[in-house]
Design a protein that fits this description.
Layout lengths: L4 H5 L17 H9 L3 E6 L4 E4 L1 H7 L12 H4 L2 H6 L2 H8 L6 E5 L4 E9 L3 E8 L1 H19 L3 E6 L4 E4 L1 H7 L3 H5 L3 H4 L7 H12 L1 E9 L5 E13 L2 E10 L1 H43 L6 H36 L4 E4 H13 L5 E7 L5 E4 L3 H14 L5 E13 L2 E10 L6 H4 L12 H16 L3 E8 L2 E13 L3
Parallel strand pairs: 12-14
Antiparallel strand pairs: 1-2, 1-5, 3-4, 4-5, 6-7, 6-10, 8-9, 9-10, 11-13, 14-15, 15-17, 16-17
Helix pairs in contact: 12-13, 13-17, 14-15, 15-17
């Protein structure tokens, strides 16, 4: 169908028909069409363009001198958009098979809702951009699916405690049907919220917005399951809601109970063995001391008895160390408050105690002129006592020399108390230094292990650090130096 210049200047419904009978001009209709949002396209029955509003011109990029008038729609429309507006799709809408159809356009990566209508002469097509609405709806559906299939129980409560939603895990975990859940309140599944407890909880959750706590939920068969509840408060269209994510922690509770029982049994065994073995050691030491009091005792036999007595004393020392470790771990679990401790005073008390506790000639020199306080607890005495005790115990000669220095230092903008303890003993090889604070290593140094393991545990407890080095750099046989760094008290 040829299109004259006159037809290009006027819309089709303003032309005359074949009988030259004028069609009533309808500028009002044009105004209505131009008021529609989105793109509005008018075609004749042969799918030639008759009119485009501004939205359609933008979509089809038709802005030059109305050259698109009278052209077949397929020549003007982009290919991907043409597929979206095929006669088949428009025909389904015109036949009322569907009120509208939503399609995605690869042309401009948007979603459009397509509507259509027709008269005896024209086809009207409207495209509305529904990208945000469609994406939001699809995301909502994905979210609903995830919530419904989530392994944890998910609840929505109204402000009075009514349950308005429970996902599938609620039905599986508690045994109630969806209809039963919809008729229940929070106190029906958690009796702890009976009475006025829910009202107080509502006040707290409004103030904090989020809360996590443990509770017990009642199942349909009358049993209880331990749960961890994480909930939040929200407002939606002037309505108040509590959203709760509930996890069944039965397995965790069983594990915690088993650990508590095992811990209690282990502590009982340690106490019983420590008490009984220590008593036997003391009896053995007593008999040995009585035997050693005889002036007629041969030298070789006396040496054997002294070694036996030392073995009993080492056994008692081991029991004491194990009990110290047990106490450290208990205090770590309780996280007891640390107090200000004067390190210099602790070192002086350690010196006095150690010099009188052995038959060896012990010379402990202390430089504690600086006042140095740290955050610790009474076990700090065992920290330094074990280091000094190891130096005395493992000295090769009867004359033991130990030098201790206490200084205040600043390292990486942190004030620290540095305690250096060095001796003139046999020293420690480099390959042993790296694992000295473990409780298992080379046989020769195994006896050091538990005492220094306690030292490391205490240093960690007081948020400090410890290192071991040669007293004479490069020659470990000249003795060892332990350097303990503890944060200074404010």
């Amino acid at each position: 169908m040829a299109v004259t210049n006159n037809s290009q200047r006027r819309p089709a419904w303003k032309r005359r028909d074949r009988k030259d009978k004028p069609v009533e001009p309808d500028d009002f209709a044009i105004g209505i069409i131009n008021s529609f949002p989105g793109a509005f396209i008018v075609l004749d029955k042969e799918w030639r363009i008759i009119y485009l509003n501004s939205g359609a011109k933008d979509l089809l990029k038709c802005h030059k001198n109305d050259t698109w008038l009278g052209k077949p729609f397929r020549e003007v429309s982009p290919v991907s958009l043409g597929h979206m507006l095929s006669p088949d799709i428009i025909g389904r809408i015109l036949r009322a098979e569907e009120r509208s159809i939503t399609r995605y356009s690869n042309y401009n990566r948007k979603w459009y809702r397509i509507s259509a209508g027709s008269t005896d002469t024209y086809v009207f097509i409207q495209l509305s951009d529904v990208t945000h609405e469609t994406v939001a709806t699809r995301l909502l559906r994905v979210n609903e699916f995830c919530v419904r299939q989530a392994p944890d129980m998910i609840f929505w409560f109204k402000e009075r405690g009514q349950i308005i939603y429970g996902n599938e895990s609620v039905n599986e975990s508690l045994g109630y049907t969806r209809e039963e859940i919809a008729r229940m309140k929070v106190s029906d599944i958690d009796p702890a919220f009976g009475g006025g407890t829910w009202s107080h909880f509502l006040i707290n959750i409004k103030a904090k917005e989020r809360m996590t706590f443990e509770s017990r939920f009642l199942t349909k068969d009358g049993s209880y399951i331990p749960v961890e509840v994480s909930c939040s408060y929200t407002m939606y269209y002037d309505e108040e809601y509590i959203i709760a994510f509930v996890r069944n922690i039965s397995w965790r509770k069983r594990g915690e109970d088993a650990l508590k029982e095992a811990k209690a049994q282990a502590e009982l065994y340690v106490d019983l063995m420590g008490h009984d073995i220590n008593n036997m050691n003391q009896v053995g030491i007593g008999f040995l001391e009585m035997a050693m009091e005889s002036p007629a005792l041969p030298g070789e036999l006396r040496r054997i008895l002294e070694q036996s007595k030392a073995a009993f004393e080492n056994s008692s020392s081991l029991i004491k160390n194990v009990r110290q470790l047990q106490k450290i771990k208990v205090e770590e679990g309780l996280k007891e408050e640390l107090i200000d401790v004067d390190v210099g005073l602790i070192i002086k008390n350690t010196k006095n105690t150690m010099e009188m506790s052995s038959g060896k000639r012990i010379a402990i020199r202390c430089d504690c002129s600086e006042v140095c306080k740290v955050k610790a607890n009474p076990l700090i005495r065992d920290l330094f006592g074990n280091i000094v005790g190891n130096a005395i115990k493992h000295a090769d000669s009867e004359a033991v020399e130990i030098d201790i220095r206490v200084n205040n230092i600043v390292k990486e903008n942190q004030r620290l108390c540095e305690v250096s303890i060095e001796d003139n003993g046999p020293g420690i090889p480099d390959d042993v230094k790296t694992k000295l604070f473990e409780h298992t290593h080379e046989k020769r140094y195994r006896s050091r292990g538990l005492g220094l393991f306690i030292v490391k545990a205490l240093v960690d407890r007081f948020n400090g650090s410890i290192r071991v080095e040669d007293r004479v750099s490069g020659d470990y046989t000249k003795g060892v130096r332990f350097v303990v760094l503890l944060p200074a008290a404010d």
